Task: inverse folding
């Protein structure tokens, strides 16, 4: 399999350091053996109530805490572990927000919350939207992956899982929300909790297979093709193209596209580093 050249790696790093957001630089630094930056960076996006906002997730400019952006922050913490007490405190505050303060309906977490409508955002986050299990499954999975069995939030997560067990077992994922189910399955497997859940592999594609494999190993052929495609599609400036459509008229969508170009490029770099597909001297 091809590897990312040293010249393109240097160009990519320069672009991220010069133009990326703090979290982009932190992710890159993590894979360059400097893990001290990512937690302080994440705390800049954490509110006093423990939840996360402030455009940590680029497509939602809402500065207030929301369940989705807090889920996204916890996912970053899981992927880029530092295993120190500061990390534990950030997780505790985030879970306190999710299980005691976040807006829920029928005990399910909402992707689209009312406060989003006061700020620029992609249509995906416009309130109201139909409520489904997806975000709740992801939060349950991350909770039991990030805390120990004697933690009260572990128990709250399992209570929520047991409450919606039948609906979860009947859940039909698509190629976009499949990641939430993968995270839940990973959590259940890691905690040795019996279940009959499995992914519908017909919903795997080149756009989700890398993220899915952060949690569950599957479809190595598709994974290899996707990694090869990353190397083939990087531009001469060390970045990948990124096309974005918020499906509304917010002008901030154009700025978000530029931000995603950098965020997705550093995430692509993370995958190439993860799978040892970057040339070395």
Result:
């Amino acid at each position: 399999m091809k590897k990312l050249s040293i010249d393109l790696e240097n160009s990519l790093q320069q672009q991220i350091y010069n133009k990326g957001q703090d979290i982009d630089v932190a992710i890159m630094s993590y894979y360059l053996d400097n893990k001290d930056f990512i937690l302080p960076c994440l705390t800049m996006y954490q509110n006093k109530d423990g939840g996360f906002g402030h455009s940590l997730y680029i497509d939602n400019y809402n500065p207030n805490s929301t369940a989705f952006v807090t889920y996204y922050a916890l996912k970053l913490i899981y992927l880029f572990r530092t295993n120190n007490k500061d990390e534990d405190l950030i997780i505790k505050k985030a879970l306190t927000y999710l299980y005691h303060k976040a807006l829920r309906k029928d005990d399910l977490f909402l992707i689209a919350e009312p406060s989003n409508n006061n700020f620029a955002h992609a249509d995906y986050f416009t309130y109201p939207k139909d409520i489904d299990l997806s975000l709740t499954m992801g939060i349950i999975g991350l909770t039991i992956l990030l805390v120990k069995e004697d933690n009260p939030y572990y128990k709250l997560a399992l209570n929520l899982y047991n409450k919606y067990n039948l609906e979860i077992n009947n859940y039909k994922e698509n190629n976009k929300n499949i990641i939430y189910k993968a995270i839940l399955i990973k959590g259940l497997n890691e905690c040795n909790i019996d279940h009959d859940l499995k992914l519908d592999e017909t919903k795997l594609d080149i756009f989700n297979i890398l993220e899915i494999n952060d949690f569950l190993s599957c479809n190595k052929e598709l994974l290899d093709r996707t990694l090869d495609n990353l190397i083939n599609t990087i531009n001469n400036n060390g970045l990948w193209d990124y096309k974005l459509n918020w499906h509304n008229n917010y002008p901030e969508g154009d700025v978000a596209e530029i931000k995603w170009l950098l965020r997705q490029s550093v995430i692509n770099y993370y995958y190439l580093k993860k799978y040892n597909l970057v040339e070395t001297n």
Remarks:
- The radius of gyration is 19 Å.
